[in-house]
Design goal:
133 residues; single chain
Length: 133
């Protein structure tokens, strides 16, 4: 299993950060890596990349303003995404961790770098979305 973590401070209160991150239906509006999201029900959704690659996410735990934990699965990997949120003054500290197992052995050497790149893009897009509202 590969673990990748990214912490960041966002210039907003925890409720705004929580709302933006947990409203998956709005992802295509602010995430540059996605073309669309399909909501499967209150606990699951599919993300489609710009070139049509699909990942299913299932909500495992949600503590509003504190914790959002998802299972994720696609043809290349399976794992968990854990988002922790904490108010610090007027800002929010987010702590995002992914726990991933690859399904194809040849991908193992590349998965850590891929996750780091994806996490950095998510934070960049999230910061832009929060600051533009």
């Amino acid at each position: 299993m590969t673990v990748s973590n990214l912490k960041s401070v966002l210039p907003c209160d925890v409720h705004k950060a929580w709302s933006v991150v947990t409203t998956a239906s709005e992802y295509p509006r602010w995430r540059t890596d996605l073309s669309r999201v399909q909501i499967l029900g209150p606990e699951a959704f599919l993300e489609y990349t710009a070139n049509g690659y699909v990942t299913k996410f299932t909500i495992v735990r949600a503590k509003p303003g504190q914790l959002w934990e998802l299972e994720m699965d696609n043809t290349n990997l399976h794992g968990r995404w854990v988002g922790r949120f904490r108010q610090r003054g007027l800002a929010t500290v987010v702590d995002f961790t992914e726990y991933v197992s690859v399904k194809k052995v040849w991908m193992k050497p590349f998965v850590k770098g891929y996750l780091k790149k994806q996490q950095a893009q998510f934070i960049t897009d999230l910061r832009r979305a929060i600051c533009s509202e």
